Amino acid sequence: MSIPPDDTDITTAGTSSAATRLLGTLAVVGVAWLVAFGLLFSPADRDQRESVRIMYVHVPSAWLAYLAFIVTAGASALYLFRAAHSLVWDRLAGASAEVGVVFMGITLLTGMLWGRLSWGVFWTWDARLTTTAFLFVTYVGYLAVRRLGGTHQQRARRSAAVALLGVLEIPLVHFSVRLWRNLHQESTVARPDGDVKMDGLMLFSLVVGLVAFTLLYVWLVIHRQRALVLEDAAEDHGLEQALSDRRAEAALPGGR
Amino acid sequence: MAPDHSVAGAIPPWRLAWLIALKDLRIEARSRVVVYQVLPFAVIVMVMFGFALDDDGIAQRVAPGLIWLATLFSLLVVVQRSFAVEAADGALDALRVAGVDAVSIFLGKALAMAAQLVVLELVLFVTAVVLYGPRVRPGGLALLVVTWVLATIGLALVGTLYGGLTAGFTGRETLLPLLVLPVVAPVLIGATRAVESALGTTGAAVSEGWPWIGLLTVFAGAFGVGGSLAFGPLIDE
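^ inputs. structure came back:
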């Protein structure tokens, strides 16, 4: 990924470049393919019938969200443990978390719709489901922490620490929910992804979905990351502007 | 931190933590905010649970969960209070400028918070016994006390950690629950199940409660270490 300098000229800069335009085109084409294969070319499932098509959105969204949160954690660690404390890593972490939260929301929503159709209920207290919900809430909180204010470096340090605490929290939640279910009550719902033999075209549609969503992820994160650079620059610019306005005011006769 | 020659630098960190804990408890002893405001709040929550679960059988069966839920709600208030004291007059910054290590502040404030939570939980437990009527069996007493101590340590550590993060910011009242509640979910699960076993409210044997002690220990240990590492970056300005 290209690393934009911190002193980007906000008056002329955009978030687009030749490379991201190509990437964006590929992502859009990939999504179009996914729609074609997911809705038209792939067959309905013998047991799940048409509802199986939710999987082509659900699984790639989940993959994308997990990828995004891993990137956020990694970038946060790089920010915190490298001597340079480069804001590039901070913005990558922030951009990735934003995209991750959106797609985790899509994962939960599609999962619940599928669950209603296949299991008859929107929700079960399965460890994986519950952990996913906690991940979602945790990263919503992470995004809120990013908006607490202060300088860019303060924001970066705080949010990096919160992101890494999330890495500590999530396994504990997962483990405790699993222990709770195992000791408390037998899981009554069949695992959604047992040893299901998948039709060739279905598998292909799923792979198309994974590739398309990965491209989409990279594309979105690059743009969000660049937009964050501009946001930071605009904030600095606004501060400088306010300072110089105040100075000019004070220099006037009668000013204090 | 670079070696400093300030007054605080000459005092060992554990002693500083102890002094900070004493300071917090002295503030509480003089202001009585937890005693006069948080305790009544916690008790009224227990009464409200009674209204909501208008059936003797239900309230008795879920009493352990209600105790810990009321504890979590009260924890949020106690954390707000603990850091409102520090945010006023920039006391937290003053401590840092005086050369007090972030770890000492973290552990000291967590210790004071744990002391207050222990009292709060005891009151909640007695309230639950009085209002909902679960029976305490002698065999479960050891489990009860161990759960009580370990869960409190975990809650105090997490509360202090995120309380320090949100201290002094506008909107902290709303952000704190969002950050703290998901994190303490393992404590709610573990402590509730352990107390259920200790009291036998769901028919579980006492021995079934002990595996949860492992979870509570891991939780307290993880946030003791993780919190000590993260607290500095979280409060440093």
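Chain B touches chain A at residues 161, 165-166, 169, 171, 175, 178-179, 182-183, 185-186, 189-190, 193, 208, 211-212, 215, 218-219, 222-223, 226, 230, 233-234, 236-237 (CB under 8 Å). The mean pLDDT of chain B is 89.
thumbs up if we can close this ticket
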